[in-house]
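Worked problem 6 (solution included).
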Amino acid sequence: MSDYNEDLYEQALIELFTERLGYSYRRGYEIQNNFTEGDYYCPVYRERLHTMLQKLNRQLPQEALDEAERKLLHIEAGNMVQNNELFMDYLQHGIEATFHDGKEQKNDIVYLADYTDASRNDFLLVNQWTYIEKSKKRTDLILFLNGMPVVLMELKSPSREDTDASAAYRQLKNYMKEIPTMFTYNVVCVMSDMTES
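Solution. The predicted structure is:
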């Protein structure tokens, strides 16, 4: 076990998610290599989100999808917890959007995920995703659901005696201070050292 470091643990989890669970996988730097500087200030994988909104809401005009995307990317309900609560409402129930159908103004719901057919959703695991807010942070693993960073995983080496799951917890708490907008879209945080948690 002493040779089993954080990188090997991360690779084992990537293998679990891709080979056993069928998730797609990309390295953060491969995706972000084409980003403009401004993209590093958005925790959402916008290109993927845009594509998935179109796929999941084919019956709606682009005007409605654009409004829903704007609402999703600019959640400002209050503090981090209130923002997350609003996001959870959007994720579960969709986002109300207004559009003009050529005759009249209409309202409809833009859905962020398909709960009846999971295969219609996009599950992407990314390691070493860089995000900048108060400071620049690089997370171990993020699971994106349709472009939204819903699961954040912080891993610590099981072979280092001075580091355990409590270090991962402290890291997540630090992220909450330094990159709080990432947690607007967070559903689950995972912290693990493989042995204790």
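Discussion: DSSP finds six helices and seven strands in the chain.
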